[in-house]
Amino acid sequence: MRNFDESYCLSAFERLLAKDSTTGQYEEIQQLLCEMLDEMGVGYTVTRKGGVIAELGGEGNALVVTAHLDDIGLMVRHVNADGTLNVCPVGGLYPFYCVTENVRIHTRDGKVYTGSICRTPNSVHVTEEELRLALPDYRTNVCVVLDEDVKSAADTKALGIDTGDMIALEPRCVVTEKGYIKSRFIDDKACAAVLLAAMKRIREQGIKLNRKVYAYFAMYEEIGHGTTYLPDGVADILAIDIAPTGPQQNSDEKKVSIFCKDSRFPYHWAMTNELRAAAIRSGADYVMDIFTPHYGTDCDPSVVAGYDIRHAAIGPGTANSHGYERTHIEGLRNTYMLLMAYLTE
């Protein structure tokens, strides 16, 4: 029952990565997700602001398991006089983590253009030392250069590009022979793929759940309001999200972390203990960890919204959060094992 379909999980991850979904631009990823749920034969509803909620079955006080499908990215702030784009972040995308990346610019008329994120001036060989040493900053020395023959703001605007257009970074996904997964947006599309793998197994094998369970794919987690709405009767919420690695962290790319606390709240003591017990029963390789000072999950907005719920979070150890991230297939496997144990035992 706990067999992890590694091939399906990686395939689902790559399918999700193929759709740009900077927070606020959810239509294509929502359509793809609905197609994937149709392939499974799982029923679902969509929320007004873009979320997808699937019913997995079971009876009793309902549990929501959530993973988000929105990505950090950029938005056009204004078109510069030379035709380049001044940009601002959508979610926690810092300039030092994205300069030199390739991007796609999505206009409000449905056109898509390519470009790259550059420093200004952009050539080290002809840049004064003090300018080379300056930290990258979206307002003053970072821009998006279009792969188009533009020399002025008028040229760029003639393409249909203007303030408010979305900019998505190329994921650049690589899976190594040793099982390491390198990509942007492991946060949180890899976790969404783990949830989809669990749903597929439950559906195909008719596995009985120990309570009523919803799978909630949210679209606004990166800016803090992904799950401010929950279905009626929900008693608990469990987020599946990345567990950032760091010098003072227990998290490990090959393990699943059980979150004790994030930058806002401690997670529910009893529910966290239930997850720990499930990890021990299942044999999942787990650690307990705390994530501060700049981390939260989609559990937090549900609590702040006033729902009378317990909340907890788990996820695979992931390096380089909000940059070019890295995890390991064993981290996804252990997350899957813990999730299945918690839902079925």
Summarize the structure.
The protein has helices spanning 6-17, 27-40, 129-133, 153-158, 186-205, 269-282, 299-304, 329-344; strands spanning 44-46, 52-57, 62-68, 73-79, 85-90, 102-106, 112-119, 142-146, 166-169, 174-175, 180-183, 213-218, 234-240, 243-244, 256-261, 286-290, 310-318, 325-328. It has 345 residues and is α/β, with parallel strands linked by helices.
How would you describe this structure to a colleague?
This protein is of the alpha/beta class and about 350 residues long. The protein has two domains: about 230 residues, Zn peptidases (Aminopeptidase, 3-Layer(aba) Sandwich), CATH 3.40.630; about 100 residues, Beta Barrel (Elongation Factor Tu (Ef-tu), domain 3). Helices cover about 25% and strands about 30% of the residues. It is built from eight helices and 18 strands. The strands form three sheets. Strands 1, 2, 3, 12, 13, 14, 15, 16 and 17 form a nine-stranded mixed β-sheet that branches. The chain has a six-stranded antiparallel β-sheet with strand order 5-4-9-6-7-8. The chain has a three-stranded antiparallel β-sheet with strand order 10-11-18. Helix 1 packs across helix 5, helix 5 packs across helix 8 and helix 6 crosses helix 8. The longest helix is centred in the middle third of the chain and has 20 residues. It is globular. The model has no long low-confidence stretch (mean pLDDT about 95).
Number of helices: 8
Low-pLDDT windows of residues: none
Mean pLDDT: 96
The CATH homologous superfamily of the largest domain is named Zn peptidases
The CATH class assignment of the largest domain is Alpha Beta
Helix content percent band: 25-40%
Tell me the β content. 25-35%
User: Number of folding domains?
Assistant: 2
Listing every helix as H and every strand as E from the N terminus to the C terminus, the arrangement reads HHEEEEEEEHEHEEEHEEEEHEHEEH
Overall geometry comes to globular
| CATH level-3 fold name of the largest domain | Aminopeptidase
Instruction: Report the C-alpha radius of gyration, rounded.
Output: 21 Å
CATH architecture of the largest domain: 3-Layer(aba) Sandwich
Oligomer: single chain
- Strand tally is 18
Which structural category fits the helices and strands? Answer: alpha/beta
